[in-house]
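Collaborator request, handled under Task 6.
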Amino acid sequence: MNLDLGEEHELLRRTVRDFAEERIAPIAEELDREHRFPYEVVEGLAELGVMGVPIPEEYGGAGLDTLSYALVVEELARIDSSVAITVAAHTSLGSMPILLFGSEEQRRAWLPDLASGRRLAAFGLTEPGAGSDAGATRTRAELRDGSWIVNGSKQFITNAGTDITACVTITAVTGERDGQPEVSNLIVSSGTPGLEVSAPLHKLGWCASDTRELSFRDCAVPEENLLGERGAGFRQFLEILDGGRISVAALAVGLSQGAYEQALSYARTREQFGRPISRFQAIQFKLADMATEIEAARALTWRAAWLKDEGRPFAREAAMAKLFSGELSNRVVNDALEIHGGYGFMSETPISRFYRDQKVLEIGEGTNEIQRLVIARQLGL
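Structure tokens returned to the collaborator:
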């Protein structure tokens, strides 16, 4: 087994790292403080060709593998999680449902603009009463005269209301089968009458990403915007979430790597009692544990990506990677902030932003408890 990255992967990794350090790092604190969506960064990433990494070239994407995509997310999160989640939500949650379940006509209509980064996509699953319990979806869509009439709401939707958002793919109850709700997926174009987009939500972290609430009031969606088969929505979004967990795991690895590097650099320059604090064993042990566990999380994440690329089952490994890396990122940012001492508590320091950005990694794409349930079921329990 070869655990080294090939030349193409290394080149991609270095290219995205250079971009993140040169174009994102200088403005990350400002974007976070102003809660400002990074349009200029998204435009630069589009020019770099990384807004559609796993989308085939025939639809305008880069045609690269899942590992390549994980590397992109990791390198972005190493500098700024708001940018990383913008790319991840657009790719894994917004674009992939159309690629995986859309008709050829839908793919040709939507993917070129999405894969190029000219437009963004969103995914609407979470509702006020349906988060971890995704089966509790209350948004409904009734077929009338060639249109799906949608009523309901979605909550905490990333990329839902930017000036370049093209569409949101939503789950909705479209009827009943054997006494159970029939859930389907629909592509809703931005600007569709009856679609109401809230003002940006103010969050603890990811402050430069776009997060909104969506309301549907007799929103008429063309019948042909049904994604895949009617009633296949539950199976579809479970598959989407499996793949999305790889990207969130990569985001957690990248955030952990960035926090660790901040702590290491600070420990080497901060002096107490006449010497750098990196010379004290208590600090050395914290940094050693960080470095070790980050490598373990990275290995889990890359393996899940490799399994997906090989066409092998990967749901268990994706859940493991997401669970482990999410919990690890919590430990890393806590220790990294402690190493910074009082300076880490100041809002203008990168580590304070990393600290705030981290917590959602244990909530989004399925809480830690949901990941344990997924893993347990995969173990046959």
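The cover message to the collaborator said: "DSSP finds eleven helices and nine strands in the chain. The mean pLDDT is 96. Please let us know whether this matches your experimental observations."
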